[in-house]
Amino acid sequence: MSQSTPEADRTTTVVMAVVEGVRDVLRSHEVSFDEYRAAVRYLMTVAEAGETPLLLDVFLNSTIVEIENAQAQGSKAAIEGPYYREGAPLVEERIANLPGDEQHQPPLLVRGSVRDTEGKPVADAEIDIWHSTADGRYGGCHDGLPLEIGRGRLRSDAQGRFEVRTLKPVPYHIPNQGPTGELLEKHLGQHSWRPAHVHFKVRKEGFRPLTTQSYFEGGDYVDSDCCNGVAPELVHPRRTEDGAEILQMDFVLASALQRVA
Ligand code: MBD
Ligand code: FE
Prior knowledge:
Helix content is about 25%, strand content about 25%. The protein has a five-stranded mixed β-sheet with strand order 3-2-7-8-9, with no helix packed on it. Strands 4-1-11-10 form a four-stranded mixed β-sheet, with no helix packed on it. It has four helices and eleven strands. By secondary structure, it is an alpha+beta fold. The longest helix has 23 residues, at about 5-30. Bound molecules: 3-methylcatechol (MBD) and fe (iii) ion. 3-methylcatechol binds near residues 81, 82 and 229.
């Protein structure tokens, strides 16, 4: 018997709405049994390749972000993507990168602040940062690459500030040998690139967790991200200081209780 808890009701409502939405598409496009079978086979290959999170994030994560951004004040959220991992090491100064990557990627100084919606500094916030290697892999996700490559956790100081050195990421080619890339490139006629990006997750008790990304102004694919994840607020102007490029990230965290009316 199904239980009538708010969660169970919500699950029923959303799942049945998804099913009805898909049924409408099948009817209006008169999808055949062979086409339906091909779709079932396709989804099996996605699961076998371990690409279920990738496929869903490519098409749907940006919509969840739209919903979240409409609900909360504070900095704009962005898609998380499939490669966030808990437990990155705390770093004081420098994020570990692959030896040799300095030859392909210039240094990047990431610095900024965490504040509340009144402008008061938020001390001791946890800032997770992650980005890919020069050849487009994420630490802890691909080919046994150690977790700490391109990843670290920082804490904001008493004034809400933080700073860390790393290497500037390059545009990212999502795995295109598998079924997700095949769908994008072969069947939908799109490319499967993301602009160079740095991911952030900022957390502090009492505040709504913020997951976001930054992109670099004028970079390749900023205008054609295959994951539809770019918004103007997330694109940062290029600034250099003493030869290093600076990425200035000033986060505003919404209270955990706050909702836009
Ligand atoms: C990524 O690195 C990413 O950030 C997203 C959203 C999807 C696939 C790969
Ligand atoms: Fe990414």
